[in-house]
Automatic annotation (TrEMBL):
PANTHER family: 1,4-DIHYDROXY-2-NAPHTHOYL-COA THIOESTERASE 1 (PTHR43240). This is Hotdog fold thioesterase. Belongs to the thioesterase PaaI family. Residues 51-128 form the Thioesterase domain. Keywords: Hydrolase. It comes from Rhodoferax potami. It comes from the Bacteria. Signal peptide: none annotated. CDD domains: PaaI_thioesterase. Gene3D superfamilies: Hotdog Thioesterase.
């Protein structure tokens, strides 16, 4: 079942991300399904930590980007989705390539959303799992 309540596409998501941390880190939106979003982040000099691995905080930025965008487009126009809590478990280091995140809703409620974001390396190995809780604010 399609969950989107506003027009959404990779192009729309890229447009709203201009001149933000998303663009600076090289995050790309690659797919929008009926009930999920897919995006990816490059593993390079912009996203490495000092020891040559993808910085864990960058995985969290990817997760928050996908979960927030998911929630923001799955609510009626005029409402706002804001983050309440996010967690991440880093499972496998990544040195090069891309990390691809898939965000799917676990719960879509009237006042909260919970989104699960699974991140994998180019070989399809799970590198990080994250969950974000979003507050849904009604128009003022």
């Amino acid at each position: 079942m399609r969950i989107w309540q506003q027009p959404i596409s990779p192009a729309i998501l890229a447009h709203i991300s201009q001149n933000t941390a998303v663009q600076t880190l090289g995050i790309e939106f690659t797919e929008v399904g009926d009930d999920y979003l897919v995006g990816r982040v490059p593993v390079d000099h912009r996203t490495h930590q000092p020891f040559g691995l993808l910085h864990g905080g960058v995985s969290v930025v990817l997760a928050e980007t996908l979960g927030s965008c998911g929630a923001g487009f799955a609510i009626p126009e005029g409402y706002n989705a804001v983050g309440l809590d996010i967690n991440a478990n880093h499972l496998k280091g990544v040195k090069t390539g891309w990390v691809i995140g898939v965000a799917k809703p676990v719960h879509i409620g009237r006042s909260t959303h919970v989104w699960q974001i699974d991140m994998r390396n180019d070989a399809g190995e799970l590198t990080c799992v994250s969950r974000i809780t979003m507050a849904i604010l009604s128009p003022r």
